[in-house]
Amino acid sequence: MADIELPDLLARCRAGDELAWEAFVRRFQGRVYSIAFAYAGQADDARELAQDIFVRLFETRRKWADAPIFLPWLIRTARNLSVDYLRRRGARTKATESEIDDAAELAGAGLDPESQAIAGSRRSLVWRALRRLTTINREVLVLREIQGLSLEDVAGMLRIPIGTVKSRSNRARLELAQHVLSLEQAAGPEPPR
Length: 193
What we know:
Elements: H1 6-14, H2 18-40, H3 43-59, H4 67-89, H5 97-104, H6 113-131, H7 135-146, H8 151-158, H9 162-187
Helix pairs in contact: 1-2, 2-3, 2-4, 3-4, 5-6, 6-9, 7-9, 8-9
């Protein structure tokens, strides 16, 4: 069922097909979790939030957007539910290094242990730097660069002009690079191999 086309998968989920729902969750769990983590900032909170998002999706499956616009709709839904979750909690939380390291454990398959450690360290560094961005810059980067939404979709989701998305995206990339460099400098040189 993993190879099922999105329109068929959506139709089967809407009809209540349990196997289709399992395939749906497998297909989108990484994307939903990454959105939840970007907003919640902690692995445990992100897992809880992602679960809540899937529960809401299941409850509203008959109202889902059609396949051509489904992915932006899903990302917007996950983002909105994440923002609501944070409002209910009363404040945005800061991620700790160990929680970011948990999220960074999604190492690529087939890499040797040293390569996995290097890749995990780099991902952790980027996530720590991402958490230091302003909220709007982090949102623009997550939606545009990580989730791959179009400029129009990001502008609509954040209710800002496309030109603002472009300038924020450029500014956010520069700000992220500066934070990555400062974190690397703070960590000191890598040990020789």
